[in-house]
Amino acid sequence: MDRRTFSRQLIAGLAALPLWNLAYGNHPDPSRKKVIVIGAGIAGAAAARALANAGLEAQVLEASGRVGGRIHTFRDWGVNLELGANWVHNTNHPDNRIDEQLRQLGVALEKTNYYRFQLFDGEGQQISRLRALLYSLNLQKRVQQAWQELAGTEAGLSIRQVFDHAASDPGLSSARQAMLRFSREAYAQSLAASLSDASADHYLGADNGEALGKDQLVLGGYDTLVNHLLQGVPVQLHTEVREIRQQGQQVEVLAGNDTYEADYAIVTVPLSILQNGGIQFSPGFPEEKKRALSRLRLGLFNKVAMRFTEKFWSGSPDFLVLQHNRGEHGSILLNHHHYSGQPILVAMPVADAAAWLEAQDEETIQRSWREALHKAFPHREIEFRGTAVTRWQANPFSRGSYSFVPVGAAARDFAAIAEPLGRIHFAGEATISAFHGTVHGAYLSGVREAERVMGGKG
Ligand SMILES: Cc1cc2nc3c(=O)[nH]c(=O)nc-3n(C[C@H](O)[C@H](O)[C@H](O)COP(=O)(O)OP(=O)(O)OC[C@H]3O[C@@H](n4cnc5c(N)ncnc54)[C@H](O)[C@@H]3O)c2cc1C
After folding, report:
1. What is the rounded end-to-end Cα distance, in angstroms, of the chain?
2. What gap in Å lies between CA 287 and CA 310, rounded to an integer?
3. What is the pLDDT of residues 301-360, one digit of tens each?
4. How many Å lie between the centroid of ligand 1 and the Cα of residue 101?
């Protein structure tokens, strides 16, 4: 199951900061300003497109050898497999036009039904879907109730504490326990984080303004949008920016032995790169930005796409859930066959299970999944044709998957990170409180900073 899922629908959290009412500092003549955009992910592409459309000169510098960043479409198996983002979330929010844009580009999307799953418990026994759904509804009520009971009793509650309080009954049947673990995992997956780390105050607290909406699975290649936005914009690959300094009314961007000059820079690199000093800034960051950077965290969510010689599972669920596989975080599989007709399952571990995965070789990963699948489908032949495994933590230009709010952090930290440093601007998924960690959030942040550079005229 994916982001903003039924677990997310239990309760909305997060005090939304308005996207468009940020004070514009400068009002330059936009006629021929030059802006260097650092990073060719969706935020950088959206910023560059908005600048170019308004007649400014935009140049994109990208450290890796491809555009897209955490959007990465893999096509080697004759289908479009998304190794980064796959869904468009919150599609009924008026600010989110990503699904519409993709459709206009001829990219196929399909609605995901999070309730269409096959659930296997800790022993590999399938649980009836009707029972699982009834438990799920019951659990939603219990979590809401638990939050009401616990809210305000203790500072710094984690979501895990609330779930534990909701299900503290030791006599819970194994089917109910399976449903509880499933909903915990689904929630953890929506945040790319362990629920023990994620802030209950933030996610379960005040209305977050995130419109819950239908999630659309992108089937026709998410990277089509990035490529489209960057059409006609000069993009320099293999150009890792190490330093950015403001000198009077100019910005200097240093990469390798080259120095690029511009009127403005828009930095769209992931949170981790800002946190670990991957880029030196002059002037340095103010205290509030430093504090926000030390509080927010980048979570970890990986994917294992598994291609088999034939489909051995039955029916056509959107998801298979195998709870006997590596505890609570490694059990949810997207049934790609449901969408593409190909015998492909995509596992989506988060947090510890995602970190475990990064340390394994392909053989170990295949063995571990073969065993887990055999338990659920004991009489079927399971033969791999290949696997595609992500290692977002080890990737030097992402160092993780997407941001989340841990215990002790708050929505305002995103705004502090977004705050410009003179002529140096900041966009990306970790600079926008509503919709952080999403493609549409990153997109909106890129447009926001382009408009800020243009003095709000864009
Ligand atoms: C496994 C996974 C699943 C996800 N699933 C979904 C989903 O289903 N739906 C959804 O909405 N979101 C999802 N997300 C989150 C979504 O992908 C991100 O929020 C979004 O793509 C981030 O875009 P961005 O432009 O902010 O950052 P990025 O895409 O990371 O772009 C930043 C760019 O900066 C480059 N860079 C880094 N350092 C430097 C440097 N020093 N110099 C120059 N360039 C540099 C990077 O190479 C990268 O290309 C998922 C993410 C992952 C990893």
Report:
1. 38
2. 56
3. 999 999 999 999 999 999 999 877 655 457 899 999 999 999 999 999 999 999 999 999
4. 19
Question: Could you tell me the pTM of the whole model?
Answer: 0.92
Nearest CA to ligand 1 atom 50: 85
299 lines ligand 1 (CB under 6 A): no
Token readout for 344 is 């492909």
Q: How many domains does the chain have?
A: 2
Ligand 1 within 6 A of 84 CB? yes
Q: Based on the domain organization, do 291 and 337 belong to the same domain?
A: no
Of 389, 411, 433, the residue at which a domain comes to its end is 389
Is 117 among the domain residues? yes
Report the alpha-carbon angle 73-78-84, nearest 5: 20
| Ligand 1 touching residue 38 (CB < 6 A) | yes
Q: How far is the CA of 70 from the centre of ligand 1 (A)?
A: 3
Q: Are 73 and 86 in contact (CB under 8 A)?
A: no
Range(s) of the domain holding residue 181: 110-199+299-389
**Distance from Cα 401 to the centre of ligand 1, integer Å:** 7
Ligand 1 near 102 CB (within 6 A): no
